[in-house]
Design goal:
Length: 171
């Protein structure tokens, strides 16, 4: 059975809040989950939707599958690192608190009865010797340097000439 994965690390939402959204789509087909996620009014919903679309893109890229053929095999929310912060309190004290984060991992699989073949990518990489490139650059004739003036410099020079002409006309 083919599995396609996508991960999201260090999402700045607590794992407890993320599990509410993830629990709503666990075990569904991908098309059904993508249909339900925009209706869930939680901060995590668009993030999970984007992660799910990323997993689908991985499946399409690797195996040339359709969205209708995919099912969410597992979607897991793990606790991430906590950022330790504090709030000023009365009499010069400080009250510590933590900003929680989480990691989400999606594993998609194919529905029963769907034939899957791995895509064969034709990627050929050309190797180039750097020494040859340097020789080619040295062999090329050097271009003559032309003076390039910016528009502002030209306008300034014209303005100076006009002011000099005005000064000479006044005398």
């Amino acid at each position: 059975m083919i599995e396609v994965k996508a991960k999201l690390s260090n999402l700045r939402i607590s794992a407890k809040k993320a599990r509410l959204v993830v629990g709503a789509i666990r075990g569904l087909s991908v098309s059904e989950a993508l249909f339900r996620l925009p209706v869930i009014f939680k901060k995590t919903a668009p993030v999970v939707e984007k992660l799910l679309k990323s997993a689908v893109a991985n499946a399409v890229d690797q195996y040339d599958l359709k969205v209708e053929d995919l099912v969410i095999k597992s979607i897991i929310v793990n606790k991430g690192i906590d950022l330790k912060r504090w709030i000023p309190a009365a009499f010069g004290r400080a009250h510590p608190f933590r900003k929680h984060s989480c990691h989400i991992e999606v594993v998609l699989t194919v529905k029963d009865g769907v034939k899957v073949e791995k895509k064969i990518k034709d990627t050929k990489v050309e190797t180039v010797k750097l020494a040859d490139l340097d020789k080619e650059k040295k062999a090329e004739p050097k271009k003559e340097k032309t003076e390039k003036k910016s528009v502002k410099k030209i306008e300034k020079e014209e303005a100076k000439e006009e002011s000099k002409e005005k000064d000479t006309n006044k005398k």
